[in-house]
Design goal:
The complex is a heterodimer. Chain A has helices at residues 32-46, 49-63, 73-79, 98-111, 125-137, 147-152, 154-162, 177-191, 208-216, 218-230, 246-252, 281-284, 322-330, 340-354, 360-374, 394-404, and strands at 18-19, 22-23, 69-71, 83-88, 116-121, 140-146, 166-170, 195-197, 237-241, 262-270, 286-290, 293-297, 333-339, 381-386. By secondary structure, chain A is of the alpha/beta class. Chain B has twelve helices and nine strands. Classes of the chains: A alpha/beta, B alpha/beta.
């Protein structure tokens, strides 16, 4: 693929939802009218200063934004090398970045006159954030979650119930995020006239990848401004984990034209880099169609979705947002992997050296951030997106650590 | 003339309508599918939709989902389905339409997939997740191979878009009877006949109706206006009901059900 001039790298998608060759709309006709409605409503909302003001007010007083950019000095000293900074999305209300998107989309749901929202969830963070927005705005809420994830992310299932959402355990396929997404889409096929589907990542058919990126870009706008104030310049590198890729898209997008800032996405390397043992479509997959868009995906030679594995339920997904595929092929973002055991070790490292329990998802990013910092001189600065907190993971982490004894 | 077009031209001149069963290819195995196709023809089906099993069929309800999961568990590949069809094609007048996710087609390659299907003896395609906006390039390849490409019109489709979809389709256009996923229903949705009459007024292309069509009286109601009734989940459930009885018995039971549905067709 030819290199796209950097000046246009952020001017995507086009009106067909294309990020270069990626993206598009590959869904049944039944959903097309709702996607057109969503696009029209989004155009109106973007042009309406009162929408931005309402969201901004919620971000400030409800979510607790701006989240801090925190200089992890003790970890930096321990690692030895570049300064490690953490963008503290774990401190956002509900404990992860997911709330940035669900509040934006829930406000749009109200504007569209719809009364019910549905969502898919892996780790349960998006489910909790959707249930929270539903409670705040008085909407009915149903969340689809793979039964394997219901087991390993129990605390979030309890939280969703308390917030008034109905959690549907999905028993089909691999019983994880991919299958939860299938079921949410099937619900939407029948409920589309009165229900909005809040997709939790920068995936799915146009306009979802664009809308989710835009709502999550508050992370990168803040991190960029905070870097200029606290570091005195832009960072040398920004690192984020990539499942579907929403926290990464959110922190990367405002830095895309800052070509001197290295951007690194970290996928789940799982047990091993053999098909079925990881969840790294950008590192090991190839372009294909899944859940409504063309992007890198893990499939077999017939186009059947491959089994994936990650210690982290939020990264345990065979696809990735189309804009990441675009950034990969354009050479703007580098993508790498961290393994299950890397993530688990780094999870413990951050607990011990900074008193912060990170989500297993974010631990993947942090592992690479630590590795990168170690290889760089002390006057350099690495920002890691700490996309969520790890309270939800403690039972699973204890189980895994016991199993390794 | 393409076989699908010929079938509808012949039916139309006799003022008759078509019964179009959907069968999941390779469910429970390809031997059963090979027995089902002649049985469907003998029971009066004009065209059979062969569903190519897919790991993530988001438009399908539990019955068809489970059938696809089972077919894939047995290792059913498109190449095996093509070989089975190639072996049977000479013995069948039945039109054969592949219902296949664009995920599969893209991965294998549009040109290769279409060429292989045409070579096996398929007459047309339905790509359930390839909407109007994305269909042009694929349709050109399909038409160049002499096959038909059917797009879908949903209850949520605005009128002007329905006209554009009919224009972009060939062979027939597929009217989705209801919002929601595939599956058997007790009744047809209200307003369906009016929708069909409206569409009849703006396109000459044969109209086939599916999603929830599962009884002879549904077939009768639908084909009072439309040119074909598509019955999917109700057929696949009958395969499921007799899953372990072997291809001959499965074909007998499905054949009997199709004969029953056939009594509902306009012109019978």
């Amino acid at each position: 693929m030819s290199q796209t001039p950097s000046a246009t790298l952020s001017a995507v998608p086009d009106s067909h939802g294309r990020f270069g060759q990626f993206g598009g709309v590959y869904v049944p006709e039944t959903l097309i009218a709702a996607l057109h409605e969503l696009q029209a409503e989004y155009d109106k909302a973007r042009a309406d200063p009162s929408f931005a003001a309402e969201l901004e007010d919620l971000f400030t007083h409800y979510v607790g934004r701006a989240t801090p950019l925190y200089h992890a000095k003790r970890l930096t000293r321990h690692v030895g090398g570049a300064n490690i900074w953490l963008k503290r999305e774990d401190l956002a209300h509900t404990g992860a970045h997911k709330i940035n998107n669900t509040l934006g989309q829930a406000l749009m749901t109200v504007r569209m006159g719809k009364k019910r929202i549905i969502a898919e969830t892996g780790a349960g963070q998006h489910g909790v954030a959707t249930a929270t927005a539903a409670a705040l705005l008085g909407l009915d809420c149903e969340v689809y979650m793979g039964s394997e994830d219901v087991r390993r992310q129990r605390p979030n299932v309890v939280r969703m119930g308390l917030l008034g959402a109905k959690v549907v355990a999905v028993e089909s396929g691999s019983k994880t995020l991919k299958d939860a997404t299938n079921e949410a889409m099937r619900d939407w096929m029948g409920s589309v006239e009165h229900t909005h589907y809040i997709i939790g990542s920068v995936v799915g058919p146009h306009p979802f990848p664009m809308i989710v990126r835009d709502f999550q870009s508050v992370i990168g706008r803040e991190a960029r401004a905070q870097s200029l104030t606290q570091i005195g310049r832009l960072p040398d590198a920004v690192v984020a984990c990539v499942g579907g890729g929403s926290n990464a898209a959110g922190i990367f997008y405002p830095f895309i034209e800052d070509t001197k800032v290295k951007l690194i996405g970290v996928e789940a390397g799982g047990r091993a880099m053999t098909q079925g043992d990881h969840a790294a479509p950008l590192a090991a997959g190839s372009p294909g169609v899944l859940h409504g868009s063309l992007s890198y995906v893990l499939q077999d030679p017939d186009g059947q979705t491959a089994d994936v594995h990650s210690i982290s339920a939020g990264l345990d997904y065979p696809g990735v947002g189309p804009e990441h595929s675009y950034w990969k092929d354009a050479g703007r973002v580098a993508y790498t992997t961290s393994s299950d055991s890397d993530a688990l070790a780094t999870f413990q490292l951050l607990c011990k050296y900074e008193g912060i329990i990170p989500a297993l998802e974010s631990s993947h990013a942090l592992h690479h951030g630590v590795t990168l910092a170690r290889s760089m001189p002390a006057d350099r600065h690495v920002v890691v997106n700490l996309s969520g907190r790890g309270d939800k993971d403690v039972d699973e982490v204890i189980r895994l650590l016991d199993a390794r004894k | 003339m393409n076989r699908i077009e010929q079938i509808f031209a012949d039916l139309r001149s006799a003022d008759r309508a078509a019964l179009m069963p959907f069968i999941t290819a390779g469910y429970p195995d390809l031997e059963a599918t090979a027995a089902l196709l002649p049985a469907a023809q003998a029971a009066g089906a004009s065209i059979c939709e062969l569903g190519i099993p897919f790991s993530d069929p988001i438009a399908d309800g539990p019955v068809i989902q489970a059938s696809m999961t089972e077919a894939l568990r047995h290792g059913c590949h498109p190449a095996d389905i093509f070989a089975m069809v190639r072996g049977l094609r000479d013995q069948l007048d039945l039109g054969l339409v592949a219902m296949v996710s664009y995920s599969i087609v893209f991965r294998i390659g549009v040109k290769k997939f279409v060429a292989d299907a045409a070579d096996a003896g398929f007459d047309g395609f339905i790509f359930p997740d390839l909407p109007l906006e994305e269909a042009d390039a694929v349709n050109r390849v399909v038409h160049d191979a002499g096959l038909t490409s059917t797009l879908l019109i949903a209850p949520t489709t605005p009128d002007d878009r329905a006209v554009a979809i009919a224009k972009a389709s060939s062979g027939f256009v597929y009217v989705v009877a209801r919002t929601g996923i595939t599956g058997e229903r007790a009744d047809l949705p209200e307003g369906l006949t009016a929708r069909l009459e409206k569409l009849r007024g703006v396109t000459d292309l044969p109209i086939a109706v599916g999603f929830g069509v599962s009884k002879p009286e549904h077939v009768a109601a639908v084909t009072s206006v439309a040119d074909a009734a598509i019955v999917g989940s109700a057929v696949v459930r009958r395969i499921t009901d007799h899953l372990h009885e072997g291809p001959t018995k499965i074909a007998e039971h499905v054949g009997a059900f199709l004969s029953d549905l056939h009594t509902g067709l306009r012109g019978n």
